[in-house]
Amino acid sequence: MTYRMAKVIVDVPSRETDRPFDYLIPESMASWLEIGSRVAVPFGRRTIQGFVISLHEQPEMDAARMKPIQEMLDLLPPLPQDLVELASWMSRKYACSMIATLQAMIPTALKGKTERYISVADNDELPQDEEGMSVLPILTDEEKQIVAYVRASGHVLMDHLSARFPAYPGILKGLLRRGTLTESQVIKDKVRKKTIKSVSVAVQGDEAEAALSSFTAQAKRQKEVLEFLLEVGIPISLQEVLSTLGVTAGTVKKLAEKGFAVIEDVEVFRDPYQGRHFKGSTPLERTPEQENVYRRLIAALDAHRHEVFLLHGVTGSGKTEVYLQTIERCISLGRQAIVLVPEISLTPQMVERFKGRFGGKVAVMHSRLSTGERYDEWRKIREGRVEVAIGARSAVFAPFQNLGLIVMDEEHETSYKQEETPKYHARDVAVRRARQHGAAVILGSATPSLESYHAARSGGGDRHEEFAPVLLEMKQRPSGSQLPAVQIVDMREELKEGNRSMFSRALHQGIAARLERGEQTVLFLNRRGYSTFVMCRTCGYVAGCPECDISLTYHQKSNNLRCHYCGYAEPAPSVCPECGSEHIRYFGTGTQRVEGELAKLFPGIRVIRMDVDTTSEKGSHEKLLQAFRDKKGDVLLGTQMVAKGLDFPDVTLVGVIAADTALNFPDFRAAEKTFQLLTQVAGRAGRHQLPGEVFIQTYMPEHYSIVHASGHDYTSFVREELKHRRALYYPPYSRLILVTLSHEKLPLLLRMAENFAGDLRAKAQRLGWFGSLDRLTPSALDILGPVASPIPRIKNRYRFQCMVKYRGDLDAVSLVRETAATTLDQLKDGDFQISIDVDPQMLM
Ligand code: ADP
Ligand code: ZN
Ligand code: ZN
């Protein structure tokens, strides 16, 4: 006799448990359980959540030792089989645990938590009390009190019980250990499906007639309700019945008791966009450029062929229109589409365009939705009620069954890389997932990442794995409008001329002219250059976090200083704690300072400021943009947020306050990021009838990223940038793995970091991989470090890092992962951590 078994990945985040455990499948679940099912299983003394990753048969002998699955948590498995496969691929590629990748794929609402219930044990061997319940003979007064309370309540939540009897935790434990009380555990979802009470009529024809004539004069209201329900004919919400007829719930209930009507709970979807009207739109006639691109895209769709496209189109070239029409084709072929955008709360216009074209067929996965709303949007996808999902990077896991297309807009954006475990890049995951489905991928951008562009140009290039996209280009704007003229303003010259303001004379005049003509201005400030720190003008003291090597950030609202890494906070000082000087200043955010200066220079100017401070509330971002669109502001001032996807007809001037603030960062992508930002910002001006003007203020006017951005010249920028990358063997001419080791004790950490690097070197040498990348071998691996991390201490933990740089067909990830595991084993110390970041985007 054989038994049905399931391999389950359990929700215990530890290295030792990153493998499946075997469980018996009870008869009752046999026909329901699938790969991807979420289950509650016994694990040690606890009940925890897990995911079924495979099913198999097992001989009776082995099965005898196994525990059965306790409960199946959903009828429809939250993860279709293809996502379970994808999770296992991700765990290999990004060197992370399987449970971490599985958890990343389901909505927060389903990350069930264990609830512990306490009840009184029914034990036959113990003496019984007058109610026939067993009791232990000797109970103290306190014990009796607890047992009596639990008995009276039936079963009690553990948390509730310890809150009710806070002084007795030891006693409670003793009762559990002696078996007077027992504990049971269940997995509870964080959010439930939402239901409403609905009423429908339960009698028809003659029956209904008879019912109507049966009411006494006192039951006049009940009769009215029945008449109303007969007239409506379909189930209707109880609330609506009550408000329409002005009756009480009791009246409807009596009707139901007589069997004339039925009241039941009906599941409804929370709709975050309820009541919002989206202006409908129809496909535009394609321009010749769009036509070429479109034909090529739908050829892949029609042939059900997996193909990756890199759509390089200047800002305003009509990429979004191409996405919309390609998706329409995809839907007409009976398949579904995913649209990925960098940060959806920053792109309300994108959502509007998709809702406007596809209406109720679109689910929106929005980071600012409530957990319940997100869960409902997700369920619409899982249950096949929608055909398009739009969202930020995690929407790549939208559980569609028959995926035809994945669109990734602004594919160069760093937010596609998740910085927490699992540290995946949505681009690579999208390509992999599309391959499973035989689906097409469109990577769209005006400034493609060098990795994607290089891969397209070199047929896969050094990114041996994943993909070699087909390059498609769009160089013109359908509107016929020209890309705006861009002027570089040398701020060193301004200084020489005695202008100490943050506005050059040219930008100052530009703003003044816009104010006069009633046109609008967008001012952009690179966030990374400025922060709100506190500095003493007398001695140079800067307030820093005592636990992390980083300066504290000033928060105006609460008038305190906070650490953005660990949350440490202290009141803002009024005198310098070092020297007692009163000349201690709060340097406001860059945007606050610019706002102040604008008010000084242009009295009465209406500035809409958009930064982390003004957009922390839900919906505030949309509100600010709408206000600007309604021309309630002359200037839209902001950080990265204003650079993305905005499209305002009356914006004719764009100013970049300081273009080079990020150029000196120790990050090999600094030039690329600067170029991308400047190109994007410049694209905001003159998108409609009015011609646009752009001023880029900089102290490095001859830097190639600034020069080429001002000329809208992506190709020249790439040529130059690739030269630099090749000279130093940076991606795309190599791949990187960043390994960060951390511990509270510095000397110990240093030793472990050196052990790790030495061990890794030795292993690579044995495999014949180790060697400098500048030799002309097709594959090589180099290890840089260990060195102190750019932020050398966070939350009192010191940090060291090693950078692994390699090229060619080597499984460097596995090697690093194994070596990390051995290093961790050398120090049996829960405090020691090693984190692995494959293809890192943030190098500081
Ligand atoms: P992108 O996504 O490349 O920035 P969009 O799709 O937003 O470009 O298009 C820019 C503008 O051009 C939008 O206002 C859009 O409505 C318009 N547009 C796009 N395609 C066409 C077309 N074929 N005919 C006319 N207008 C178009
Ligand atoms: Zn001082
Ligand atoms: Zn800190």
Automatic annotation (TrEMBL):
<feature type="domain" description="Helicase ATP-binding">
    <location>
        <begin position="300"/>
        <end position="466"/>
    </location>
</feature>
<feature type="binding site">
    <location>
        <position position="548"/>
    </location>
    <ligand>
        <name>Zn(2+) 2</name>
    </ligand>
</feature>
<keyword id="KW-0413">Isomerase</keyword>
<comment type="function">
    <text>Initiates the restart of stalled replication forks, which reloads the replicative helicase on sites other than the origin of replication. Recognizes and binds to abandoned replication forks and remodels them to uncover a helicase loading site. Promotes assembly of the primosome at these replication forks.</text>
</comment>
<dbReference type="Pfam" id="PF00271">
    <property type="entry name" value="Helicase_C"/>
</dbReference>
<dbReference type="InterPro" id="IPR014001">
    <property type="entry name" value="Helicase_ATP-bd"/>
</dbReference>
<feature type="binding site">
    <location>
        <position position="563"/>
    </location>
    <ligand>
        <name>Zn(2+) 2</name>
    </ligand>
</feature>
<keyword id="KW-0235">DNA replication</keyword>
<dbReference type="GO" id="GO:0016787">
    <property type="term" value="F:hydrolase activity"/>
</dbReference>
<keyword id="KW-0067">ATP-binding</keyword>
<feature type="binding site">
    <location>
        <position position="566"/>
    </location>
    <ligand>
        <name>Zn(2+) 2</name>
    </ligand>
</feature>
<dbReference type="InterPro" id="IPR040498">
    <property type="entry name" value="PriA_CRR"/>
</dbReference>
<comment type="similarity">
    <text>Belongs to the helicase family. PriA subfamily.</text>
</comment>
<keyword id="KW-0479">Metal-binding</keyword>
<feature type="binding site">
    <location>
        <position position="545"/>
    </location>
    <ligand>
        <name>Zn(2+) 2</name>
    </ligand>
</feature>
<keyword id="KW-0547">Nucleotide-binding</keyword>
<dbReference type="InterPro" id="IPR005259">
    <property type="entry name" value="PriA"/>
</dbReference>
<dbReference type="Pfam" id="PF17764">
    <property type="entry name" value="PriA_3primeBD"/>
</dbReference>
<dbReference type="InterPro" id="IPR011545">
    <property type="entry name" value="DEAD/DEAH_box_helicase_dom"/>
</dbReference>
<protein>
    <recommendedName>
        <fullName>Replication restart protein PriA</fullName>
        <ecNumber>5.6.2.4</ecNumber>
    </recommendedName>
</protein>
<dbReference type="InterPro" id="IPR001650">
    <property type="entry name" value="Helicase_C-like"/>
</dbReference>
<dbReference type="InterPro" id="IPR027417">
    <property type="entry name" value="P-loop_NTPase"/>
</dbReference>
<feature type="binding site">
    <location>
        <position position="539"/>
    </location>
    <ligand>
        <name>Zn(2+) 1</name>
    </ligand>
</feature>
<dbReference type="InterPro" id="IPR041222">
    <property type="entry name" value="PriA_3primeBD"/>
</dbReference>
<feature type="binding site">
    <location>
        <position position="579"/>
    </location>
    <ligand>
        <name>Zn(2+) 1</name>
    </ligand>
</feature>
<keyword id="KW-0639">Primosome</keyword>
<dbReference type="InterPro" id="IPR042115">
    <property type="entry name" value="PriA_3primeBD_sf"/>
</dbReference>
<keyword id="KW-0238">DNA-binding</keyword>
<dbReference type="Pfam" id="PF18074">
    <property type="entry name" value="PriA_C"/>
</dbReference>
<feature type="binding site">
    <location>
        <position position="576"/>
    </location>
    <ligand>
        <name>Zn(2+) 1</name>
    </ligand>
</feature>
<keyword id="KW-0347">Helicase</keyword>
<dbReference type="Pfam" id="PF00270">
    <property type="entry name" value="DEAD"/>
</dbReference>
<keyword id="KW-0862">Zinc</keyword>
<keyword id="KW-0378">Hydrolase</keyword>
<feature type="domain" description="Helicase C-terminal">
    <location>
        <begin position="571"/>
        <end position="754"/>
    </location>
</feature>
<dbReference type="Pfam" id="PF18319">
    <property type="entry name" value="Zn_ribbon_PriA"/>
</dbReference>
<dbReference type="InterPro" id="IPR041236">
    <property type="entry name" value="PriA_C"/>
</dbReference>
<feature type="binding site">
    <location>
        <position position="536"/>
    </location>
    <ligand>
        <name>Zn(2+) 1</name>
    </ligand>
</feature>
<comment type="subunit">
    <text>Component of the replication restart primosome.</text>
</comment>
